[in-house]
């Protein structure tokens, strides 16, 4: 119970009065419904307002206290200037809501009459919150206008109330409980025939039950998804702070109750998916959670990016690529995209080996260090696998080719030339005359000891792409083994110029420069590059 300043000013012992008020209301419904009212707290309400419509006052009360921990929140305001008997002037509640506003009653009324009216108004508004509607026969508490002769609820209203009491409070926060309530409530409402029950309230209840049936989340009294309460919004802010502080496990645990209770809240579900992806990327529950969020919010790019991360973690590169392409389309459809989102998408494209798309996406956020890093890594990958920039392979097929280069090289390093040869043959058909495939042929020839064929293949690669660093390295190895020192030094120096981190090229060059003055210069260069001596 919240009493505003005007009500408190006119009722000296208002806390004691409301306890007696609730006791009388409980006595009135204990026999037909088997319930009592218990006061959780009586609180002063820092509000003062004119004698006017009650719906705005109800909205103010809802903002003050969401009522998550009680069955009903009541706001008490001053008595009306004049008493007409119309229920909407004495109190107000939303059908299926959790709050109601009650006006105080004039002390000019006889005590017994005032107490009887107080009980009738309280129970009338409370009944609305359980789904009861106005009954236009004037004989019970749900009549639109109060009459001193009214005594109790009619039998069919008691049926409606019993349905609500069986399913609440769980039906306000749990989807299955709400669906069960809606099914039973619909059956009762459909049976209410006749002019006493006709009107917008009956239509609203039928519409609400239909929305619940079709909904994947808990609905509020207006038939829309339940919004976060002030306490829940504060909790969400705490979760975000925990994640930013590097405590994702604690953040995920704190967020879980909100994620369960608010499946239709976009911000909650985005964060829940994000945390799950980074904590348990291999779990089936994580993928299911994120895919359910995508079904609810299909235009949210960050969800697609998180699902792409799951696919990358599981090695499902084609699925990751498809998710990223959709994320890009979602971003392009927006006008308020942060540059960091483009940079993040570019990084994921690169992880999926979609090099051209990574470069194009990074170019949308050129001022960010993350974009510059993507462009640098993409250039290194192109040099490593001999993937030319510009017209060539369809960007949608790049990832297949890049992964194939890595797979074939792994087979050769594992000493499996036969399956490597089969893959190269297949790639040559899919990507004819492509320098990446020719590079693999060079490596296969070198592994098989066919040095002339290896040299010819690698030189053909360089003719197509001069900065193919792996081709330079392989030609350097070939030249070293055949004592072609000048050629070896040329190719190895080019490797170091393109990729200074390739230590094998430094070591081969040291062998080439042994006994010459260039060795000391190379040692100085190595120390400057790695801050240690050349072995």
UniProtKB/TrEMBL annotation:
Pfam families: TPR_16. InterPro entries: TPR-like_helical_dom_sf. This is Tetratricopeptide repeat protein.
């Amino acid at each position: 119970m919240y009493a505003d300043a005007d009500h408190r000013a006119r009722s000296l012992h208002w806390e004691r009065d409301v306890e007696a008020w609730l006791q009388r209301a409980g006595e009135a419904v204990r026999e037909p419904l088997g319930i009592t009212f218990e006061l959780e707290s009586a609180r002063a309400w820092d509000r003062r307002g004119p004698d006017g419509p009650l719906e705005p006052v109800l909205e103010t009360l809802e903002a003050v206290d969401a009522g998550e921990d009680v069955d009903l929140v009541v706001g008490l305001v001053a008595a009306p200037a004049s008493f007409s008997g119309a229920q909407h002037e004495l109190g107000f509640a939303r059908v299926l809501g959790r709050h109601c506003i009650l006006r105080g009653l004039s002390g000019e009324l006889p005590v017994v009459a005032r107490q009887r009216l107080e009980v009738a108004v309280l129970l009338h508004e409370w009944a609305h919150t359980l789904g009861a509607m106005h009954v236009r026969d004037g004989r019970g508490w749900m009549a639109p206008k109060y009459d001193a002769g009214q005594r109790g609820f009619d039998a069919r209203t008691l049926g409606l109330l019993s349905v609500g009491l069986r399913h609440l409070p769980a039906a306000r926060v749990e989807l299955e409980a709400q669906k069960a309530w809606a099914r039973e409530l619909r059956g009762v409402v459909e049976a209410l025939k006749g002019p006493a029950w006709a009107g917008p309230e009956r239509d609203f209840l039928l519409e609400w039950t239909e929305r619940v049936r079709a909904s994947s989340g808990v609905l509020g009294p207006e038939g829309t998804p339940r919004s976060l309460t002030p306490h829940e919004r504060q909790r969400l802010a705490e979760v975000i702070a925990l994640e930013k502080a590097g405590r994702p496990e604690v953040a995920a645990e704190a967020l879980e109750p909100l994620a369960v209770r608010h499946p239709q809240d976009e911000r909650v579900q985005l964060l829940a998916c994000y945390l799950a992806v980074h904590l348990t990327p291999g779990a089936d529950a994580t993928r299911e959670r994120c895919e359910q969020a995508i079904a609810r919010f299909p235009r949210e790019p960050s969800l697609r990016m998180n699902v792409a991360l799951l696919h990358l973690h599981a090695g499902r590169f084609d699925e990751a690529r498809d998710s990223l392409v959709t994320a890009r389309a979602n971003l392009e459809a927006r006008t308020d995209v942060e540059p960091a989102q483009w940079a993040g998408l570019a990084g994921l494209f690169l992880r999926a080996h979609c090099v051209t798309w990574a470069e194009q996406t990074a170019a949308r956020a050129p001022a960010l260090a993350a974009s510059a890093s993507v462009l640098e890594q993409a250039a290194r990958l192109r040099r490593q696998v001999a993937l030319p920039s510009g017209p060539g392979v369809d960007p949608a097929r790049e990832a297949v080719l890049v992964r194939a280069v890595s797979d074939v090289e792994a087979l050769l390093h594992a000493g499996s030339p036969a399956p490597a040869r089969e893959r190269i043959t297949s790639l040559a058909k899919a990507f004819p005359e492509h320098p990446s495939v020719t590079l693999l042929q060079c490596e296969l020839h070198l592994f098989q000891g066919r040095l002339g064929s290896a040299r010819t293949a690698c030189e053909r690669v360089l003719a197509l792409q001069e900065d193919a660093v792996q081709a330079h390295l392989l030609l350097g190895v070939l030249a070293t083994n055949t004592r072609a020192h000048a050629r070896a030094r040329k190719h190895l120096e080019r490797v170091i110029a393109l990729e200074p981190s390739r230590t094998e090229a430094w070591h081969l060059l040291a062998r080439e420069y042994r006994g010459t003055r260039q060795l000391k210069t190379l040692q100085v260069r190595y120390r400057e590059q790695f801050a240690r001596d050349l072995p």
